[in-house]
């Protein structure tokens, strides 16, 4: 296991890293394998990156596991992905808990199978008191739907007279998002060479540093994460201010 980062090194670490895990299908196709094989290797990459993030000293890691648009994929592929999710939650939960990882799932649960919903609830309840890495899994998640949901919630409060329109601030709005209580991502990584957000954390990534890497997700691990974090430490984040 790697040594924990020194105090001075932690100052330049991103507190929250979000990752769009892309390229499982292309990884499998390049090897003449079915897409299922790519997803299975992708699940192994999840484990490696979670361990790596914890060892590096990152506080929050959000992984885009299944978007609200992914239901458009063939039913057999969706079933395979859900099966891998079941396997991950059942196989990895004990180790995550033992290592102080807090599990949190964002996204809508209404289309998920009842047994998966129960597994998610159990994982969140079991790890709620952990104070190590927070692992947020975006499942059946869509950034636009999340923003619309926040608007509806706020509009209902205004309609009830419980909230004045002038009291609506970015901070209040953020508190109605599914990531409430989490800091916004400092950096967003997308694998496979694609350069788009794909409806992921649209509000939260307003000031995130973007890292687009050519590595396909099944080949992404701690080393690649460390390289991205190192590059992050070299960037100057100005938040609209002038360069020093």
From TrEMBL:
The keyword Metal-binding applies. The active site is at residues 22, 70. The keyword Iron does not apply. SUPFAM superfamilies: Undecaprenyl diphosphate synthase. Its cofactor is Mg(2+). GO terms for biological process: polyprenol biosynthetic process. Mg(2+) binds at residues 22, 209. Homodimer. Belongs to the UPP synthase family. PANTHER family: DEHYDRODOLICHYL DIPHOSPHATE SYNTHASE 2, DEHYDRODOLICHYL DIPHOSPHATE SYNTHASE FAMILY MEMBER. This is Isoprenyl transferase.
